[in-house]
Amino acid sequence: xxxxxxxxxxxxxxxxxxxxxxxxxxxxxxxxxxxxxxxxxxxxxxxxxxxxxxxxxxxxxxxxxxxxxxxxxxxxxxxxxxxxxxxxxxxxxxxxxxxxxxxxxxxxxxxxxxxxxxxxxxxxxxxxxxxxxxxxxxxxxxxxxxxxxxxxxxxxxxxxxxxxxxxxxxxxxxxxxxxxxxxxxxxxxxxxxxxxxxxxxxxxxxxxxxxxxxxxxxxxxxxxxxxxxxxxxxxxxxxxxxxxxxxxxxxxxxxxxxxxxxxxxxxxxxxxxxxxxxxxxxxxxxxxxxxxxxxxxxxxxxxxxxxxxxxxxxxxxxxxxxxxxxxxxxxxxxxxxxxxxxxxxxxxxxxxxxxxxxxxxxxxxxxxxxxxxxxxxxxxxxxxxxxxxxxxxxxxxxxxxxxxxxxxxxxxxxxxxxxxxxxxxxxxxxxxxxxxxxxxxxxxxxxxxxxxxxxxxxxxxxxxxxxxxxxxxxxxxxxxxxxxxxxxxxxxxxxxxxxxxxxxxxxxxxxxxxxxxxxxxxxxxxxxxxxxxxxxxxxxxxxxxxxxxxxxxxxxxxxxxxxxxxxxxxxxxxxxxxxxxxxxxxxxxxxxxxxxxxxxxxxxxxxxxxxxxxxxxxxxxxxxxxxxxxxxxxxxxxxxxxxxxxxxxxxxxxxxxxxxxxxxxxxxxxxxxxxxx
Length: 677
Fold this sequence. Notes:
This is BNR repeat-like domain-containing protein. Keywords: Glycosidase, Hydrolase, Signal. By secondary structure, this protein is mainly beta. The chain folds into two domains: about 30-315, Glycosyl hydrolase domain, family 43 (Tachylectin-2, Chain A, 5 Propeller); about 320-675, Neuraminidase.
């Protein structure tokens, strides 16, 4: 293995995204506090794995790794019936107690919601209710309590509400079981003031910074299929107001500082916490977009940084730091046939069009085309076959373990996928030129050592010569799994070229209800109505961190094999037309979704582009074989690139590199991901 060094700067691929849930189960209306050198989070009634809790409590040493440890309020109050919501916990120094404020449905359900108070000696509880609610109100008026000790006066205040009424604030008695004597209730923020989300306001939180009291609040629908929720902010010089909404002074007229994005739906009901290093964080719940698209509406805990800029809080989405890829080893998977298993010696015409698969056992398989002759011509024995090689050391060394042939035909375009039960499927293209095109599927139950024919995805059969002028082939199948576990495939087809209107080539999709045994009807993913010379093809699909799917493909013809893409929420329904052009690439694209949400895109041009926003924008990066010497001697004229993760800090670019005498060799260039200098 020859070592070459090169650096590629791109977003870190291996750190946990800040937009991954901190607690990936239903954990609504979170409050996060510090106590005893740890962080504690409290949430509305729910619980992991159907273990119901009145008030959930979780603990963390670092705000990143959380463990739900039980029910902070294991015994219901005598006055409370259900719906133990929106907990807030603080430590009252005079009482030397942790105090839990929460809202609940009263036993007399006609009375409406109420706010209760409970006490404990430890932050995790158990908290015991004081015996009677602090306040009861009709409907949803008495909900979402938050209590703050005013840094200026030392007095305690509770803000709560609202049920389509204003958020309210009132001074508390130090006992925490009553309001202060003769204390006035102030309406601090009306419902309906904010156009986009303000129809209903709730989930208040007050944070004091630089002489201002910042009132965070959420609206206007937290939950379910119609969830429409965001965090907004107002500020005041005094804790009781008057509060000025950000939208009243901001250029964009919006009070919103946190709303839905590509990763999540309906963020809101927040708390604000300062960590041990003095950094400020906003904790909130949101529905992961992938879960929302699957009609799973659990609200999970998220945390993001907050910075106060120009007098207002700004939510800072933590982006992965820039990293460098140090290109290191180059290995050869195959240079093509020299001798068949039967002992037949063949010329070395090379190997090409590689695709890899990591098995659940940790081994890797590579499927690629090998040429018995110079390829793509009629031959009684067939000119092209598929060879499968195996690596047991994470791609460093490879050995052939099987061959798939379709006698009298050319077989190429290998694509591999492993089913949940462990079986491996391989799809390819089998062709007898201008007579017969098929997309066969083979199955292996022994890790790729032997294969059995399973099904045909699609076919176009004809008498000798009848499919030509124009040709009606089909090419390049690519497997992927849908959200519901069904197996889907995309491929390019010319079957519709003689139809009216004519399509020179389209990208089609089929779905299998039975793990590849049969295939459903053809639907179209990419095509150009009224533009029959355009040829979208070579599709590659991956599922992104936000749960949506992205497909990339080339479009030859007038588009000169430029690269285009589309996205889909479910991998089934795609927008009409040709898609969106990605500059800087040409021919045979491949896309890989990294664990932190970044996308890597390669093509025959020998470059890789990076997207940090789920395909909306791309930044092109040079690759080693795009450089001048010393790379030219070893890496030039590379085609059919694909990208794979080989470990937490290693990626590999798999490609067909031109051999000096003839044909191509299948090679991998490994790169180690390091911090950028």
